[in-house]
Structures are given as structure tokens and as C-alpha cells.
């Protein structure tokens, strides 16, 4: 099932996407808490604007080094947190930090957490997964080069686009992840190439932090980030989920 979040006159609302008819069926509440009760409102794509399919309750947890040589266990990964204020949605601008000369983007799988979780074993990690979406992990590399803290360079507003939808049924390890700049493919990898499965990363994240419903785990990139300039568009695609498009705007 694909779940979207729509910007409507009555405020943001969740909806399921019917791939046969191409329509959105608006839900009465948050499916993570109240299930799939429908409001009866059915909308055509031309009548809706998609926003980030999930605003994390507290945080986005990210990982680096998922395919690095010599990285053999999850505790060797580079870990960071983005605040929920970093999250933006499909079509929204990535606003680069003022004076930054080097901002880079990475296409990644994102795991949406369904319930409170702490110290979850890998074999039970699937029990706390609501679904999967697409993430763009944006980094101010220029800021890193001049000594700014990672909280600034990874966590600035608009540094974590998510979308376009959450898929509750996709097999993430069988999918491909692509990054495109102005429509040109610049990276293309099978998610199964990672040394660590999404469920391993969820379990490891839960050993470090209590995960809350709606929190997001972004699963790392397969190549170094790709530099973008204001005026370009970054597109991240995962087969079975969709394409996340975001223009880049100077801050």
C-alpha cells in the first residue's frame, strides 16, 4: 500500500494512493494510530499537493560508511541525527546555507518507524517498521571544511527531503536507488549492495536512541554526495516507491 500526505484546505491529511485509478483516498486520521478509516473524499492528482509523507516525532537517524571497505559491523558506521525541522517534502526547495559554496545530495532509502522502540533485536525489527520512503540526505560540505559542527552541516532546514509516498509493502533490498541531477542519472545502485540491511540499521539505531512513532532511519548512500548548484533540480528515485524531486535554491 502506498500512503501519501496531502496539503488540503482543512490542513495536511493522509491518503492512500490507488495505482489503478490514479486517485488519492483521504483518510480520517493518522494511519499509524487510527488505522485505515476513510473519510470518503477522493481526489485526482491535479487537485492535490504532496507534502512530506511523515514529519518525524523527534528525529531522523542517518548512517555513513555502509559500503566502505573495512566496515564489518554496524558499530563502525558514522552516525548522525537530523532534527525534524530539517524535513521537507516533494517539490519543496532545498535552500542552501548562506555563503555555502559546496552543498551535496545523496539518494537514500528511508525507514519510517511505527511505534516506540528501544533495543530491538534484528529478528524483530520488522515489527517496528511502518513502511519505506525516499530520502535526500543534503550536506553542507563547505561548512564542514571550515569547521562547522555536524549539527549545522547535516541538520539545517530543508536538508532532509522525504517522499513522495510511504510504501508499506515494498521489498527494499530488491529495489534500486538512483540520483538524478536535472534529469541525468548520476548514481544508480541496488539497495542490496549495502553491507547492512535496513532492519540491521533499525535495530542498531534503537540500541543508541529510543525511537518514536514517525521517526525516520535513512540508510546511507552508495557513493559520495554529488554537488548541486542553485537553479538545479535533484531527483531521488527508489523503484517501488517513487521519485522525490526538489529544486535547489540559494539561501
Main features:
about 250 residues; twelve-stranded mixed β-sheet; mainly beta; globular
Mean pLDDT: 96
Please, how many helices?
A: 4
Poorly predicted segments = none
Distance between the termini: 37 Å
Main beta sheet: 12 strands, mixed
Helix content: 10-25%
Structural class, by secondary structure, is: mainly beta
Number of strands: 20
How much of the sequence is in beta strands? 35-45%
Rg estimate, integer Å: 17 Å
**General shape:** globular
Secondary-structure element pattern, one letter each: EEEHEEEEEEEEEEHHEEEHEEEE
Short recap of the structure:
The chain is 10% helix and 43% strand.
Notes on the structure:
With 251 residues, the protein is mainly beta. It has helices spanning 31-34, 141-145, 150-155, 198-208, and strands at 2-8, 11-18, 23-27, 38-43, 49-51, 59-64, 78-83, 87-88, 94-96, 103-105, 107-113, 129-136, 139-140, 160-167, 176-181, 184-190, 216-218, 226-228, 233-238, 242-250. Strands 1, 2, 3, 4, 5, 6, 7, 8, 11, 12, 14 and 17 form a 12-stranded mixed β-sheet that branches. Strands 9-20-19-15-16 form a 5-stranded mixed β-sheet, with no helix packed on it. A 3-stranded antiparallel β-sheet has the order 13-10-18. A hairpin with a 2-residue loop joins β15 (176-181) and β16.
Amino acid at each position: 500500500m502506498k500512503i501519501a500526505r496531502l496539503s488540503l484546505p482543512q490542513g495536511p491529511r493522509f491518503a492512500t494512493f490507488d495505482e489503478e485509478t490514479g486517485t488519492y483516498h483521504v483518510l480520517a486520521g493518522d494511519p499509524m494510530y487510527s488505522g485505515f478509516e476513510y473519510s470518503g473524499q477522493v481526489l485526482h492528482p491535479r487537485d492535490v499537493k504532496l507534502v512530506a509523507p511523515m514529519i518525524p516525532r523527534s528525529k531522523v537517524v542517518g548512517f555513513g560508511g555502509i559500503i566502505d571497505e573495512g566496515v564489518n559491523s554496524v558499530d563502525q558506521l558514522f552516525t548522525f541525527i537530523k532534527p525534524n525541522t530539517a524535513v521537507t517534502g516533494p517539490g519543496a526547495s532545498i535552500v542552501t546555507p548562506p555563503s555555502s559554496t559546496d552543498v551535496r545530495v545523496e539518494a537514500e532509502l528511508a525507514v519510517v518507524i511505527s511505534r516506540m522502540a528501544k533495543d530491538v533485536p534484528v529478528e524483530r525489527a520488522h515489527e517496528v517498521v511502518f513502511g519505506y520512503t525516499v530520502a535526500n540526505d543534503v550536506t553542507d560540505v563547505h561548512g564542514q571544511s571550515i569547521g562547522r559542527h555536524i549539527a549545522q552541516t547535516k541538520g539545517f532546514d530543508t536538508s532532509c527531503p522525504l517522499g513522495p509516498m510511504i510504501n508499506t509493502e515494498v521489498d527494499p533490498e530488491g529495489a534500486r536507488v538512483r540520483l538524478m541531477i536535472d534529469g541525468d542519472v548520476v548514481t544508480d545502485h541496488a539497495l542490496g549492495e549495502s553491507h547492512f540491511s535496513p532492519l540491521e540499521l533499525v535495530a542498531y539505531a534503537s540500541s543508541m536512541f529510543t525511537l518514536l512513532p514517525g521517526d525516520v532511519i535513512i540508510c546511507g548512500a552508495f557513493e559520495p554526495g554529488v554537488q548541486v548548484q542553485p537553479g538545479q533540480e535533484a531527483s531521488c528515485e527508489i523503484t517501488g516507491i517513487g521519485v522525490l524531486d526538489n529544486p535547489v535554491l540559494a539561501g
